[in-house]
Each structure stands twice: as C-alpha cells, then as structure tokens.
Write a structure and sequence with these properties.
Helix 5 links the parallel strand 10 and strand 11. Helix 8 runs parallel beside helix 9. By secondary structure, the protein is α/β, with parallel strands linked by helices. The two termini are 12 Å apart. It contains 9 helices and 14 strands. The strands form 2 sheets. It has a 7-stranded mixed beta sheet with strand order 6-5-4-3-2-1-14. It has a single domain, classed as Ribonuclease Z/Hydroxyacylglutathione hydrolase-like (Metallo-beta-lactamase, Chain A), CATH 3.60.15.10. It is globular. The structure holds zinc ion (2 copies).
Length: 271
C-alpha cells in the first residue's frame, strides 16, 4: 500500500548527505549535500523530478550538507529553510551568488523549536551540539505520523529525547566504531578528539544508547530505523548493525533496520 508520507535517502556519509521527504503533494529536500548532478541522478533513480522540489531544509554549513546548494538552488528555485547564523555563514561565502538575479531561491530564517509548515507537513528544527555555526536536526510530522533525522550531533540531550521520543521512523547517526577510530592512522589525534567530542559525531555505541532510550519512551511506535552517516574509514555497515542489534532484539515491536549508503539511494519508505 502506498502512503502519502514517505522518505528516501539519496546518500549519507562524510562525502555527502541528502534525504527526500514526501508528504501529500509536497517533496522536501533535507540537505543538498551532493553535487547537483548527483542530486538530479539520484532523485530520478527514485522517481522524483528535481523540479518538484520547492522546499529545502538545511541542517548546517558543512560541505557534506550544502555542497549542492548554490547550483541546485539556482536551477530549481525553492524556499531554503535555514537558521540565522547558518544563513549568515553561507552568505559570507557566496554573497554575489545568492544576491544574483539568477538565484531565485529564497532563504527563510527558521528558529529552533518553532514549527513551520509546508502544506500539511509540520517541520521543526532542534539545536544540536556539533562543530558548526548553528547546527540543527529536524523532525517531520504529517497526519499523526512522525519522522526524525538525527545526524551530525556530538551528544544526545533530554531536549532531543522529548523531541524524538514519539517517532515512527528514524534516521540515526552511527558515525564510527570506537576501536577503529582509536587505531586509525590517517587522522591526526586532534581530529579524532574532535570527532569523538560532544561537538562531533555519534559513535556506534552512543547511537545504541540513544536508540535504547528512544525505544523506552516510544510506546512501540518506531517501525523503521536507518543507520546513517557512517565514516568510510572508521566504520562498516556490519559493525553499525551489530552495535544496535541487541537493542532491536529487546524492543517490544519489530523494527526494520537498514544502513544508508554513501552511493546507492534507499528507495521510498513509508513513515
Ligand atoms: Zn555531515
Ligand atoms: Zn557536520
């Protein structure tokens, strides 16, 4: 049975992130974090025409989340929802582009915790700790169903638990395996510390704790879990799955779990 509230992951990882959310006749792009060419290709791979995108939500300014913004936003005029400081940062880097007449997308400044609507889809951003100027994560609510995306955060807070406890579908960051990060020889020590800090990313074991906490408060609602934003050097899909498997086994309901790929889109999933 088709549903009118669905999501698709076009790509996820440190090289690029983009998620589509479809609610009724509206399709929202969460982070144009791939090249415009890749965004177009992968949207078409899941039967979405790029010109159908009229709304783009931005989490933060890291290139794996905004690298397609300039070109995609110019080619497909949209409303771009973004926090104030994030907007100022983007503007400081690309002022002439965004002020050019050809760039017809419009920036809409959003406030964390203040819900805004795209059609019947309710969208709320929540502040997170991450080493960016004003990073947020988003929850999408439509006709009583709830979908949350939790990536690029160094730690989980009670405020986030309140916001994400009642989700029916969740994208959760499993960025790195602790042992692989510690033994990694490519990254300097300071960078490893940053990744593991409260302003970095969630590890597999931290994600497992977050998942366990959410399930405890979720009253059996969660049906679909996507593990996402895996480090290509310091994690593997098997390690990420293994880290949450005992939590999923203990859950009162059956939860379908997939791992998002940096390259291959995950086709539409009903929320
Ligand atoms: Zn990222
Ligand atoms: Zn980031």
């Amino acid at each position: 049975m088709g549903s009118d509230f669905q999501f698709s992951v076009l790509g996820s990882g440190s090289k690029g992130n983009a998620i589509l959310i479809k609610a009724g006749n509206d399709t929202v792009l969460l982070d144009p974090g791939l090249s415009t060419k890749q965004l177009e290709l992968r949207m078409r791979a899941v039967d979405c025409e790029p010109s159908d995108i009229k709304h783009i939500c931005i989490t933060h300014e890291h290139s794996d989340h905004v690298q397609g913004l300039k070109v995609f936003g110019k080619r497909y005029p949209s409303k771009i929802y973004i926090t104030h400081n994030n907007y100022r940062w983007c503007l400081s880097k690309n002022e002439e582009v965004y002020k050019a007449a050809g760039f017809q997308s419009k920036f809409c400044i959003i406030e964390p915790k203040q819900t805004f609507k795209v059609g019947e889809l309710k969208i709320t951003a929540f502040r997170v700790n991450h080493d960016a100027v004003e990073p947020v994560v988003y929850r999408f609510d439509y006709k009583g169903k709830s979908f949350g995306v939790l990536t690029d955060l160094g730690e989980f807070s009670s405020e986030l638990l309140t916001a994400f406890a009642q989700v029916d579908a969740l994208i959760l960051e499993t960025n790195y395996d602790d042992d692989l990060l510690t033994s990694d020889t490519k990254r300097p020590f300071a960078l490893k510390q940053r990744i593991a800090s409260a302003y970095g990313h969630l590890s597999n074991s931290e994600a497992a704790k977050v998942l366990s906490t959410i399930i405890k408060h979720n009253q059996g609602r969660l049906e679909n879990l996507i593990l996402a934003h895996l480090s290509s050097d310091c994690n593997t899909p098997d390690l990420a799955r293994e880290a949450v498997s005992h939590i999923l086994q203990k859950a009162p309901q059956e939860i379908k779990c997939q791992v998002a790929s940096p390259i291959t889109p995950i086709d539409w999933i009903n929320v």
